[in-house]
Write a structure and sequence with these properties.
Number of domains: 2
Order of helices and strands: EHEHEEHHHHH
Number of strands: 4
Low-confidence stretches: none
Oligomer: single chain
């Protein structure tokens, strides 16, 4: 078993934080997408979408998509429960994780992919207007999260979950995307300080 990833990328980091929270050790193999290694035949056979991360099991099964990989390990190691324990908790965590993916991380990544010079050869064509269209959506979501966090400790409730992992990765990826966080969002800052202080955040 091993995980194919590119360490600086945000989605592999989600998996690393998840595994660290679980106390699970898995070997990693680096795929350099800046050199086109994700498009080579060997990797493309494992994941035709040519994205990282990919979990490669001992029997040759390849599982792509970061949340799918996390769900696999959640089934093997249900504690601590990072997808919730009860039906309501599981549904609530799912709801918030999707919100953090589709309304936050996605928009941050669009700004990065369509404006950052390092992405010019990989995001063809770069569309700066699309990046700028996504920029206000990032800030709208930050305000929304700040308001929600004024009523509870974590994104999906009173327990740390995969929704917090996705939100943490998104907010930290704002730096390379050159997006600033307003100091007025005090509940968001409190939450970010707390989750950044967890040992898993360094994974």
């Amino acid at each position: 078993m091993k995980i194919l990833e590119m360490r600086p990328a945000p989605n592999p980091r989600r998996v690393r934080i998840f595994l660290a929270e679980k106390g699970i050790e898995v070997p990693f193999e680096q795929i350099d997408i800046t050199k086109g290694e994700h498009k080579l035949a060997g990797f493309s056979k494992l994941n035709p979408m040519q994205r990282v991360p990919v979990l490669l099991l001992d029997d040759g099964t390849a599982i792509a998509e970061s949340v799918a990989i996390c769900r696999y390990f959640e089934c093997l190691h249900p504690e601590p429960a990072l997808f919730g324990s009860t039906p309501v908790e599981k549904a609530t965590v799912e709801m918030w994780n999707r919100r953090m993916e589709h309304s936050f991380l996605f928009h941050v990544m669009q700004v990065f992919r369509h404006l950052h010079p390092s992405m010019a050869e990989m995001e063809v064509p770069q569309v700066p207007a699309w990046a700028e269209a996504n920029r206000p959506r990032v800030y709208e979501t930050l305000c929304f999260i700040d308001k929600e966090l004024s009523t509870r400790l974590f994104i999906a409730g009173e327990a740390f979950s995969i929704a917090d992992i996705t939100a943490l990765v998104a907010i930290d990826f704002m730096k390379p995307a050159r997006l600033a966080r307003s100091p007025e969002l005090t509940s968001l800052a409190r939450w970010h300080d707390a989750v950044s202080g967890r040992p898993s955040a360094k994974a």
